[in-house]
Design goal:
Strand order of the largest sheet: 1-6-2-3-4-5
Oligomer: single chain
Largest sheet: 6 strands, antiparallel
Order of helices and strands: EEEEEEEEEEEEEEEE
CATH class of the largest domain: Mainly Beta
Radius of gyration: 21 Å
Helix content: under 10%
Number of domains: 3
CATH architecture of the largest domain: Roll
Shape: flat
CATH topology of the largest domain: SH3 type barrels
Number of helices: 0
Number of strands: 16
Strand content: over 45%
């Protein structure tokens, strides 16, 4: 059993019989009263963020997790199939565990977080950026580049994002998967 002194960002703990990952924390020592630790935790199953305060020295149940690289193969119903490139073992991940499934591309390398003792997948993390081809967007008007105006575009994964006016159909772009925002044109 660990204590609140062991809390750090990314730590996975069991709290109220649910798994949580620490997003951020702050040790507070007020002038009056006992010290405490203020945390922001994400519930792994649902993705909900919860603010919680632990008193200093409180015992916490640390869960050992492992992060492994897997390659995305295909979607089958409401499950995504991933393959371990080292031993070619395949694992089915329910759609609710993938935060932004519209940015998944076949052959993409993703990081899957596993509960080490139970060998149970917990979270699928996509790469921070992907390269995609614009499959459809309205043509831009020549000379209308003075403003930072964006227009809707559909990329080859099926996701709809906003791109600058100068981007046309068929161009390759880089997209941030965390926010769904256009980053740059790929040369």
């Amino acid at each position: 059993m660990a204590t609140t002194a062991d809390i750090r960002n990314g730590l996975c703990i069991r709290h109220n019989d649910k798994l949580f990952q620490i997003i951020e924390f702050q040790h507070v020592k007020p002038g009056k009263g006992p010290a405490f630790v203020r945390t922001k935790m994400r519930q792994i199953e649902s993705g909900k963020v919860l603010d919680n305060t632990f008193s200093a020295g409180h015992k916490i149940d640390v869960v050992r997790i492992e992060r492994r690289e897997y390659q995305y193969l295909y979607q089958e119903g409401d499950k995504f199939i991933f393959m371990n490139n080292e031993n070619y073992e395949q694992v089915e991940i329910p759609a609710k565990m993938v935060e932004k499934p519209l940015f998944l591309k076949e052959g993409m390398i993703c990081e899957i977080t596993f509960h080490a003792e139970e060998e149970m997948p917990l979270v699928v993390d996509l790469p921070n950026t992907i390269e995609a081809e614009v499959t459809y967007t309205e043509p831009g008007i020549k000379g209308d580049t003075a403003t930072n105006t964006m227009k809707p575009a559909t990329i080859d994964t099926g996701a709809e994002i906003r791109v600058p006016l100068f981007i046309g159909t068929g161009e390759k772009i880089k997209v941030d998967t965390r926010t769904g925002v256009y980053v740059e044109r790929v040369k």
